[in-house]
# Entry
Amino acid sequence: MQDAHWHVLGAGAIGCLFAQALHRSGSSATLVMRPGTHQRFLPLIVERGDQRCEAQLPVITAGDDELISHLLVTTKAYDVRAAVAGIAHLLNDDCVVLLLVNGMGLAEQLAADWPRLDIYCGTTTEGAYALGARHIRHAGRGQTRIGKTGLATPPPWFAQWSRAVDHCVWDGHIANALWAKLAVNCIINPLTAVHGCRNGELGQRRDLAEQVALLCDEVSSICRAAGFGDIAQQLPSTVAAVIAGTADNRSSMLQDVECERRTEIEYITGYLLEVADQLGIAAPRNRALLEEIQHRAH
Ligand SMILES: NC(=O)c1ccc[n+]([C@@H]2O[C@H](COP(=O)([O-])OP(=O)(O)OC[C@H]3O[C@@H](n4cnc5c(N)ncnc54)[C@H](OP(=O)(O)O)[C@@H]3O)[C@@H](O)[C@H]2O)c1
# Structure
């Protein structure tokens, strides 16, 4: 089968990382830029250790007429809906859309807006940050899990991804992986952002460790009621392991709050609270953290 041609919507740190990986492995990848970009090709630089990989990638914008069959979305969660809407006229009816975005509820939103899209979700522990426009540093190697609820075996295009991306696996139970990440994010991200601390301090400072434990209880009860009992049961040890394993990290939410950028909290804690409301579970600690972060952002 011929390789799919991927269009990458969201040429930031993660989008550039995966666009370059696809390109390097021989797949064709095109960047979908905001209107107003007039170049037909743009340089993309990825630094990894002391290696530096440069590529010229083709570019389209919403004003072009190139049809899209496979779309990778790597914007921030709050930009997904508008970004996809802006290029919806370019999407094939049954376009494959792969969301590699932190946060929940986006696939459901897109499916409601465009029921014919073939939507997949992914989660990655790869780490990258921007050094300049489309110039990134690949800071941490991790694992990428991709799946679609109800699809046990991967579609043909996944072969390209396992060839292009190290440690990329098909996950027949992707909802579990997404909820496991959501549960950990609901604890570490808002607490580090509110207390202005590195991840490790959540385990080292007694006052913060107590807050972690109380928040774990609340998040666990929502996970359990939502049908993710295993995640609930393991949450305290999972969170402790992530805190210890990423002790020096400054969470993305902390960095966003410090730089007065919008955070993704509505798609993390906000999503968890929506589920809690639907299930009739009180979640005062999560609600207080959501409000605190929203308050700081304004
Ligand atoms: N960076 C990491 O290490 C990492 C790791 C795991 C998961 N993630 C998740 O991956 C997602 C992306 O993160 P990131 O760090 O790559 O963010 P980022 O660097 O801010 O990249 C997002 C990109 O999307 C672009 N964009 C937004 N709206 C657009 C539109 N309408 N048309 C075209 N481009 C548009 C932005 O362009 P403008 O700059 O013009 O707005 C920006 O270049 C987030 O959900 C994040 O939580 C990131």
